[in-house]
Amino acid sequence: MECQIGVISGDGIGPEIVTEAKKVLDQIGKKYGHLFHYTDILMGGCSIDATGVPLTDDAIAAAKASDAVLMGSIGGNTSTSPWYQLAPELRPEAGLLKLRKSLNLFANLRPAYLYEELKAACPLRDDIIGTGFDMMIMRELTGGLYFGARKTEEVDGVTTRTAVDTLVYNENEIRRIAKRGFDIAMKRRKKVTSVDKANVLDSSRLWRKIVEEVAKDYPEVTYEHMLVDNCAMQLVKDPKQFDVILTENMFGDILSDEASMVTGSIGMLSSASLNDTKFGLYEPSGGSAPDIAGKGIANPIATILSAAMMLRYTFDLDKEADAIENAVKQVLKEGYRTIDIMPQAGESTEGIEQVGTAKMGDLIAERV
Q1: Which of 149, 178, 271, 283 is surrounded by the fewest CB atoms within 10 Å?
Q2: Rounded to 5 degrees, what angle do the CA atoms 161, 165, 170 make?
Q3: CA gyration radius, the chain
């Protein structure tokens, strides 16, 4: 199979971790007879530096011409980077929001899985962890507060500045993400937890109503509603209760980061953003980590696992995706760790070896 992959290396550690994902993909190509063609696409701070905007029309066209897009990370230090002195619509993250909207990437999948070898990195007690957990957070990605009308204005002359952000969802937006969530649940443990704030928000009350309508088409799936504040507590109280968490844009943004840290490191979590076709944008859940960029210590596993998700969801190459995921498990079992998943002070380091970004990529590629 020949696969056309757009590559957004981005900013910070992005180029480093994307390099390792491509290394593993190329090894998959050699072993299974596939050919991966890569097209570099500028987005984020690097695009601002080169073009003055975080995402150009040419970049969008290049993404649309690809079968899928593999992304590293974008953005920089919000306190010191000149990118964050620009108007909000010209900052790095605006490029990502525009790309998601332009490609209609409405469904974000973020798996949170605790590897047996990394239980020590989980901040929760052993009795809470139990035998581990395996959940999928389904986040609506193109609606809600992040895409509603917004403004900041002066009220009463110059005495009071007022900011307004608008949260909007229509039933079609809710229904399509709900269907995707229930479809994913059918391939897993057949349980959906729909998360909202229906005790306060009209948008959440509509969300809850539409989810109940969709649930009728999936009699095999058990579903429940849960308020977002309760869900945040339950994620640290009993994470193994969750299978598929279905939620709107902002809630999903927050909860998926919380879930990532329950696994021990955000550097371990992949993600996929899908539209109505096989096209998807695949990226790690973590950020650009500008403080460690260029040091060769960033964890590339989340990006490598994102590449595995790309093989599975866009190209239907399940065997090849399994090979990458099993290679990651094998490397961890053999005791190799990047700095973020090394044992903490006071924990045993017997049989554990710290490696850098490139070495971790080499090890995983060798075990494919």
Answers
A1: 149
A2: 160
A3: 21
Q: What string of H, E and C letters represents the secondary structure of 279-335?
A: CEEEEECCCCCCCCCCCCCCCCHHHHHHHHHHHHHCCCCHHHHHHHHHHHHHHHHCC
Distance from C-alpha of 137 to C-alpha of 185, rounded to nearest angstrom: 11
Catalytic residue, chosen from 49, 165, 229, 238, is: 229
Catalytic residue among 257, 329, 359, 362: 257
Catalytic residue among 197, 313, 336, 340: 197
77, 290 in Cβ contact below 8 A? yes
Residue-level pLDDT, tens digit, the chain, 368 residues: 999 999 999 999 999 999 999 999 999 999 999 999 999 999 999 999 999 999 999 999 999 999 999 999 999 999 899 999 999 999 999 999 899 889 999 999 999 999 888 887 788 998 999 888 999 999 999 999 998 998 888 766 666 788 999 999 999 999 999 999 999 999 899 999 999 999 999 999 999 999 999 999 999 999 999 999 999 999 999 999 999 999 999 999 999 989 888 887 777 889 999 999 999 999 998 889 999 999 999 999 999 999 999 999 999 999 999 999 999 999 999 999 999 888 877 788 889 999 999 999 999 999 99
Name 341's Cβ contacts closer than 8 Å, sequence gap at least 6: 118, 121, 264, 265, 267, 268, 299
Buried-state track 348-368, b at ≥16 Cβ within 10 A, e below 16: eeeebebbbbebbbbbbbebb
Distance, in Å, from the CA atom of 32 to the CA atom of 314, rounded to the nearest integer, reads 17
From 23, 67, 146, 169, the catalytic residue = 146
40 is catalytic: no
What distance in Å separates the CA atoms of residue 298 and residue 185, rounded to the nearest whole number?
Answer: 32
Which amino acid is residue 166, in one-letter code?
T
**Known active-site residue 253:** yes
